[in-house]
Write a structure and sequence with these properties.
Blueprint lengths: L4 H13 L7 E12 L2 E12 L2 E8 L2 E8 L4 E6 L4 E6 H9 L8 E13 L2 E16 L5 E15 L4 H13 L7 H4 L3 H16 L2 E14 L4 H7 L2 E12 L14 E5 L1
Parallel strand pairs: 6-12
Antiparallel strand pairs: 1-2, 1-11, 2-3, 3-4, 4-5, 5-6, 7-8, 8-9, 9-10, 10-11
Helix pairs in contact: 3-5
Length: 266
Amino acid sequence: MKRFAPVALLALLALLALVAPSYADVTVKGSSSGKGMGMNSNMATVTYIKGNKMRSDTITGDTTRTMIFDVDNQKLYSFDNKKKEADVWNMQEFAKEIGQNVDTTGMKASVKANGQTKQIAGKTANGYDMEIEVPANIGGPGGMKMTVSLVGPMWIVKGAPGTQEYINFYKGAAEKGWIFSDPRGAKGSPGQAKAMAEMHRQLAATGGIPYETEMSVKMGGEGRMAGMLSKMGGISAITTVESIEVGALAADLFAPPAGYKLKEQK
């Protein structure tokens, strides 16, 4: 299970980058830093949004890792600039698979205003404390029981340009049961994947846009596995928006580059 830790951290950083301001067509540049399982990571992020499609690039050194979320077609594309191939996932089927390992009836979620404010990118952001707890099983039904907690403060700007587009995008994705996680990491941590999906739904429900996000993932269990689960958690990340450019984006930006070999994944 340890081999999923780097993927989980990179996915968390990329997903946090996605909770940046959104317009019909927008380019958001920012930075993310995170740590967990003895791994430290700092990276630049670029997020592109066009209707119901989203592309997230995370840049570390000379490597760019890309995830493209096509909500309407229920497809996720994952690739980097080093290989001429892209993994393709049917997210409708994948969401069903993840659902078998997570009992959403036991999910607990709260998003509460903490009364604090701060200035971010020239706007007044209101502070919120989020806590999401999701029960899950490792190895499917009947497997080892565990609990995944997602906690952290978020700074929400209300009335900002693009707010309605942001809410509509995540509302539509939630209605289709979309999982905003890299499937390679989500298979090893299904509870974390469901918690991230619930986080996006809760954020949309605030009626604003998160301009800054801090997030920690914690895992717990019972018996002798509790210690190992605790080490699997302990992943944290912070994402900050640095600039926003609004303008039409080309459709081919939301598909793997021409000439890339597509590899269907299950």
